[in-house]
Amino acid sequence: MVEKFITPADLPTDYERELLIILMEECDEISQRAAKILRFGALEVQPGQIFDNVERMCQEIGDFECVRNLLHQQNLIDKKRIPYGYERKRGQLAKYMQTSKPTGGCDGA
Ligand SMILES: [Mg+2]
To answer: How far is the CA of 107 from the CAs of 85, 86, 103, 104, in angstroms?
Structure first.
């Protein structure tokens, strides 16, 4: 008989669960906007829309930042740890990207 694993951690509250679902939705929306830019171009305006793909990407990133702040308020994100991930990613990109920008890095420097 297999011994069942029971998490020792507290599970998210209903509110926290909903925030995490919204976070997943926003990540999907950012992904979708990136795909649209790849397929149709940055300045394409989809039929029935008034904003181009870049503006809509910015809106989705704003949505993400809003949810990120709400998760921080629930202690599901520690903002002090984010710079570590940022720097780690910069290092990974410098090492593994197969293409390069003529000038500057991901922070625009
Ligand atoms: Mg959104």
So the answer is: 14, 10, 11, 8
